[in-house]
Amino acid sequence: MENSKEMRTWLDDMGLDHPLVIAGPCSAETEEQVLRIAHELKDTDVNYYRAGIWKPRTRPGNFEGVGALGLKWLQKVKEETGLKTATEVANRAHVELALEYDVDLLWIGARSTVSPFIMQELADALEGTDKIVLVKNPVNPDLALWLGGIERLHTAGIRKLGAIHRGFSTYEKTKYRNIPEWQLAIEFQNKFPDLPLINDPSHITGKRDMIFDVSQTALDLNFDGLMIETHFDPDNAWSDAAQQVTPEKLVQIMRDLRIRKETDSEAEYNAKLSNLRAQIDILDNQLIDTMGKRMKVSDSIGELKKQKNVAVLQSNRWNQILGAMILEGESRGLSEEFVLKMFKAIHQESINHQEKIVNG
To answer: Coiled coil located at which positions (predicted)?
Structure first.
């Protein structure tokens, strides 16, 4: 997959003056619902109308999609609105049916990407197709697994390829449904800068009120497009209700997003600067998150010291940490002065946390 430029041709040929937009309901529920949403999206920036036909659910008993019946509804969408269509496929049977009903864009979900066996089955089923195929990142943050799935498709002769960044699962409680791990997406771009990369803020956030901010970050990082789940009555959607927006809200999001175009050297400079600043913002947020986690551990140490009536300040331990961090900092290009100042501040905050608990 050395020449990824050929995989970008399908996107360049569209000649868009805005990011690629894939939108529609998480799940196709009824024919009326599918067509109503499509008609509300047909005169917007939406390029592909998405709807989940087969829904992989974490546990049995939840709504698992309407199945092949929904493909007929997608056909009607294309006939009545002119919108191109998109859906997820997870096995050979799905692929064969989607191709039979002339779905324009197929994506492979995060639960499928984790398995090389599934990816090979899908690659074999799609061999030689001229359809666009997008691959979501696996549920776990494994860049090699993500790239490996795309490489299997490329080896099968599929050239209209791209990737979807939908975040990564975690046991930790965060503000995201799936943590974005932006650095991994940035590394993906660095390895294959010409491979189209789409952001899925719906699955990253799990909350509709966060979709704009994540979408803006993605565009600042030079993502090529967005996949946003859209429903005329999101609160009553049959799946993932909290993360879907109305068609009106989608239009507003696209209107409010700052989209930077590289038309001259100054614009190119501004775009690169915005990209680097977006990376700094991501790392700053990760620093704050890490510091918060560190202080929670300090709180636990404070509880333990209180039980054993041990002094908060342990000088030997502090000197060990400081010496080790100065050496680690030097190996990463950080001055001793900076490391000292930073860890003295962290140490003081840790002492403050523990003293509150011990004295409380």
So the answer is: 259-286
